[in-house]
Structures are given as structure tokens and as C-alpha cells.
Input
Amino acid sequence: MTKIRKYAPFTRAGIMESVTYRANFLFFLLGEIMKCFVMFFVWKAVFQSSSQETLYGFSYDNMVVYLFISFLSGYITYSDGSYAIGKEILDGSVVMRMIKPIDFDMCFLFQELGNKIISFSLIFLPITAGVEIYRFVINGRLMLQLPMLFLFLLSMVLAYGINFYFNLSYGFLAFFLKNLWGTDIIKGAVVDFLSGATVPLAFMGAFGQVLQFLPFASLSYTPVMIYMGMYDLPHILFYLGLQIFWLVIFALISKLVLRLAMKRLVVHGG
Amino acid sequence: MRKYLRLHRIFIAQDLKKLMEYKVDFLLGAIGFVLVQAVKVLTLGIMFAAIPALTYKEGGVVVDSWTFNEVLFIYGFSLIPKGIDHLLFDNLWGMGYWVVAKGDFDKYLTRPVNSWFYVLTEKFCVDAFGDLFVGVVLVLYSVLSMPAEIAADINWLRLIPVALVMPFAIMIYTSVKTGTAAISFWTKRSGHITHMCYMTNEFASYPTKIYNRFIKTFITYILPFALTAYYPAIYILRGESVWSLGVTVGVSVILFLLSQLIWKLGVKAYESAGS
Amino acid sequence: MYNNSMIHVENLQKHFKKAIKEPGLKGSIKALFKPKYDIVKAVDGISFDVEAGEVIGFIGPNGAGKSTVIKMLTGILTPSEGFCRINGHIPTESRKEYVKEIGVVFGQRTQLWWDLALRETYMVLKEIYDINDEDYKKRMAFLNEVLDLEDFITSPVRTLSLGQRMRADIAAALLHNPKVLFLDEPTVGLDVVVKDNIRKAIERINKESGTTVILTTHDLEDIELLCKRIVMIDKGKKVFDGELSKLRSLYGQMRELSFELTKAEDMEKLTYAEEFNFADDDLKVEAKGTDVKVRFNTDTASVEEMLSFTLSKVHVKDISVKDADIEEIIRRLYKGGGSAL
Output
């Protein structure tokens, strides 16, 4: 417990930072959510163009829920450790972190948690409420069940953990590539696609089947499918287990990469 | 004016030299932008795998429809004015994110050059080649792979008026960025407002008819990105919406003047930084 | 009344709106809906004139409004009240024509292009200021000689040392042969030798090109060496305007007595404060081993009295008397808030 208390100031700093820049955050969010609305209309036209009610098991209403909930979970589980760490590595200030008697990755984690608390409290309610009202109007009854909500939140926490360690590992790549801007855009595009954030994996046929087992699906697709009630209980348990598996793998990878990077740092004298 | 063009050329030459120095960064940045677009095109491909053509219905009646090639053409076309603005005038982004807040705008005011123009041309953003490359490839691919009966509708003479209107379409992007960047003269930072307004261009990459009336009006007259993409593209493809060319010129001139006014007032209100 | 001076400043004022934020979450929410503002008068009615060819030291404590005045004079900020006219131009009204006649250097940030080789920076400036080839060559040769740019003219700006960068920045500000040169803290952070070179260069440029120079600085040596006249401001108001020697005679009854003791313990015998009843501000004694410096106000005790008292008490080597430096004067002036003027 005392160990965690050591990191509380980082969380507080993260909260303060988010509160200070909340106006910027809201404008940014509005810009990003615009993309959801674009896809909302595009999918509407796609479903109108089809002779069938559902495409690959998705009705239009499912699709709308998918769009907004995957935006929500993508936003909340997003971690920008790769950029922050990469920057510190490139300008050398990472050394300042390493000489302090605290875990290097934990500082980032707890600071980002502070950010997440604020962004969660600002966007979770409006988006889920909007989605649920939409579903209520369509179906005439409340669709979201409490256990599902709980499992969804659990899955999001796991997704965030995977994201965090994945990005941490990726951030260390800055050591070797000496580039942040380009590699970050590349990562964003690839992860977006493979995680189902742009199109549900179900639309991708056999390729999508394979993707469901890869860590990318654990980042976004799994929590969203749970929220939508697209998985039955055995599936939910299986995919949660898979998430835990990937979380452990990436935590280990990040430790390994950190060690390699430290060695290099020592060799090159930072 | 000749002085300004010469200056712009010097800055472009400088940035190209820099490009040689940082080859890897340029390559990764451009690959990144290509990939972002590739993912979007892939998404379109996946959608179209399930349907024969994108149709828009009102009250169950088909009003209009677009084949995959046409949608690709519209999408690819939208990247061209966007990419050109990105290539030439990207420096405006910095204004709202840090230039004004840190007081770095001072230097633009101590030179005998129009401050807006100076900011505008100081940087030449080579990353934009990614966007432009994808745009041109999509346009060419969609035309070359088009079924003959659709291709027959295209009259290549229509490229002439579109080319004439192109500078005005680019000016829509530049003016939106200018006007929102200038807000920072009062608020210190406005990058996120620029981001929000700029993102509206996402609507413009698809047939405008699929949106509801509010959005349609908004992206045609208020933040008129549809004038940079769907309208000129569909005019080339089908000769539809000739009126939009005139609107593009009118609306973009109004936006330009408005953004210049905000900029001028902003410079007066500029407070620099520190003491 | 029309005034022919190079720089004419009349009742210049700049007000900033500052948001008042109450503490705590409640304060933040309040500020979000009903922001309250305070008007801060950073510059509050300053007037002065500068003749062509003068070098003026513009000084004052931190936050006094120096930079704000400079930014108004250079056309960066628009005055809230009053005006300034430089060589017949109102800066913000005809900015583009006006800035062709001035050069500006901000010590804290460079105006050069970070990634360009220095020579190319000057090529860009040549275009910006429409300098013809012949003038450019002549001017470059002159600046090269005065500021010694040769060694690093082909290096990118980002690789220059601070001293080199400052020389490069000054050259950039002078390329178009401006009538007025504004220097904001030009020697900040530089070592002694570089400072000296830069001061000499400024002096030469002033003499040879007749450039009027406005210099703000914290380094009082800059002022002692370069400026005949100083304008001092504090809290947005002018507190002194005149020759350095006048400031000295007003506040500078201070003299400095320095000598070397034969025995360090003798220091105890030198009880100046008790002997002459000095007020706290009027006496400052510094002793490092056997080296002693005594600064004192001649209103309280004359140089003669001090000398004879010292010599009667202890044995000394190398005794000398000189004017106290301006730092002391300004410290005293600030303490009084300039109310004496």
C-alpha cells in the first residue's frame, strides 16, 4: 500500500493537468467524434444499399452502437506512453527518471491514470447514455444489463493495461529509430485497422477470425463486443482470459525492451 | 508579389534540403500518411464487398447511387486540395499550438513582410506528399478500372473549370486554419479549435447526399469542405452540380476575407509573452 | 508641437486584461461561467525623446515594463493609450515600411532560422528587406569585420554557441542598415570576453553608421560602457531620465574605498558605522581576507574623514578611492521607489 502511495502525486499531477486543459480536451474530443458521425452516415447508406437487414451479423443499430462504443473504449484505453517516453529518450531527459528510486513505467502509468479519471468522468456518461437512449428508442426497452456493464469495464481496464505496455515497448523503439512522429502515425494506422476500430473484425472474413486472437483485438474489439452483448458467457470468459494473457506478455516484453534500451543507454552514455 | 513568391521559393528550397538531411523522418512520415489513407480505403473496400453500390434513399425511393469506383474517385479527389494546403501552408497549425502562447510571433512582426504570409510560407511540409500520392493514385486507379458505361459520362474538358476553381478550394482549407489559428491572439492557444474545425473535412470525402440537411448545409456553406471534394469530383464524373463551382469561388472569397479580418484584429490584440 | 527627434514617445500606456482566478474547484467553475478581469497597467504613461545617433540605456527591475515598451516601439504590441513615433512612423500603422528602418535583437530568443546555414539566413533576409546585391556585399563585409562572422558563417544556426549566435543575431538585425537598433538583453548569459566583444561591436556600429541604439539590460557594465544617457522605469512609470553622470550626482554620493590590510585581524578596529553614524544603506563593508572594500555615502562622511580614520587605526597597503558603480546607485534608487525624483 505504501508503495502505491508513493505514486499518488503522479496521479494528482495527471488530474491537475487534465483539468487545466479541459477546454482543449473538449474541443479535441469534438473534432474526433466528428469521425464517428461521418461513419454513422456512411454506414447508414451502406445498410440502405443492401437488400439484407444484417451484414455479417450486424444490424444497422448494432453498427451505430459499435461505432460509438468503440470510439469510447478506444479513447479511454488509449495510452500515449510511446510518444512521451520516446521524446524523453530522444532528448535524454529519461536519465532523470532513471536516477529516482521509483519504477520508471509506474510513473507514467499513474500519471496517465490521473488523465484517464478526468476523461472517463467527462465522456463515459454522455456517450453511453446517448447510445442507451438510442437503443431504448429502437427496441422499446433498456438493453444494457449491469453484469455486462461490469464485464465491459473490466475488459476496458485490461485493454488499457495491454495498451500501456504495448506503447511502452513501442516507445523504446525511439532508441533505435530516432524518429517519433512518423513511426507513431504508422503505429496508429496499423493498430486502428487490426483492432477493429475502423471496421468490425466480423466483416473481414477468415482474416478477421485470425485477428480476433491477436493482441490488437484485445485492445478494442473485445470490450466493445462484450458491451453489445455479441458474446455469450463462455466466449466472454475466453476473451477476457486472452486479454489477461496478452497483458502478461506485453508487460514482460516491455521489461525486456527496457533492459535492452538501458544497456544501450549505458553504452552510448545517454 | 514577386518578392513574396521569391521568398516562398527560398523557403521551399530550404525545406527540400532539410528533407535530404532527414531522409528517414520524411520517409516514415509519408509512409504514415499513406497508411492512414490506406486503412480508410480498405474500410471502403470492406463496405463495398457487402453491397453492389452505395445508394441513398428517401422514403424508400432510391434518390442517387454511387459505384465503388465513383466513391473512390471522390475520396481520392478530396485528398488533392487538402494535400496541397498541407504541403504549402502547414505552418499555420503551430500558431494555435505554441507560436502565440510562447511569444514566438514577435519575430514575424519585426520584418517588413505581411505577417500572415510570412507564417504561411515559412514551412514546406513534405509529409503531405503521402496524402497527395494516395489521392492521385486513387483518382487514376478509379478512373482506369471504371466500367465503360460510367467512364463514358466523364468529359475531360470539365477538368479545366475544376482546375480554375482549385485555388479557391485550397483557400477554403487555408482560410479555416487562418481564422481559427488567429483566435489564439486572444486566447493564447487555439490549436484544438483548429483541429475541431479541420476535422469537419472528414465529411467531405464521401457523397454529400448521404448526410442530413443540417450537415449538408454546414459542409457546403459554413465550413464548406464539401466544395473542395464531393462537388468538384461529381462534376468531373457526371457533370452534376455546376452551380457549386461558382459557390466555391464566392464562399471561399468570403471565408478568406473573414479570416484576414480576424487575423488583422488579432495582431492588434496580440500580447506577446513574458515581460 | 511637432518634434524632430528620432524617437518620440508620448504618454505611452499598455494595459493587459488579467483573469482573476479564485482558488479551488469552485473558483475554477466560477471562472468558467463568469470570468472576472483585472486591468494591469504594465506601462503607465511614459514619455521621452531620443535624438538620432544616441545610445540610450533602458533599465529597470524585472517586470518594470521594459520589454513591453520595447515591443510597442518595435510595432509588436499596439499601445492602449498614447503613441510613439519613430523617424516619422507610427509603428503599428505603417508596420511594414517602419520595420525596414529598425533592427531588433531579443537576447532570449533568436530570430534566425534554426536549420539554415547562417549565410543562407542572410540570403533570406536580403530578400525580405529588398537589399540590392551591391549594398548587401558592402554591408556583409562591414558586419563580418565588426562581428567576426567568418568562422561560422557556413554552419547551421542550431550548431552555434550562444556568443556566436548573438553576434549572428546582431548582424541579422543590421543587415539592412537600420536607423534604429533595439537590443533587448544582448549580453545575457554570455561570458566576459564575448560580452566585451559585443559591446565593442555595438559601439563601432553606433559610431560608424550613426545608428541610434536602444539597449535594455540587467548588466550595468553594458550601460557604463555604452550609454551616456539612461531612462529608468519602474512599475510602468519613468523614474529617471538623464545622463549617467547626473544619476551619479543625484544618488551617487557613494564612493568606494579599497585597500589591503597587513593583518586580517585589524578589521575589527575599523568601526566605521559607530564612528560616523552611517545609516544601513549608506555603508557597505566587504572583507575577503586582507582585501577590504568599503562603500560609503559622502553625505555622512567625507572621503578625507574616512581616509584619515582608516589610516589612524590600521596599517594598509595600496589604498585607493573611486566612484561607486552604477549597480549600487540603482539598488538605492529602486529601494526608494524613485520617489525622490
Q: What stands out?
A: Chain B has a mean pLDDT of 90. The interface with chain C takes residues 3, 6-7, 10-11, 14, 18, 103-104, 106-107, 109-114, 268-272, 274-275 of chain B (CB under 8 Å).
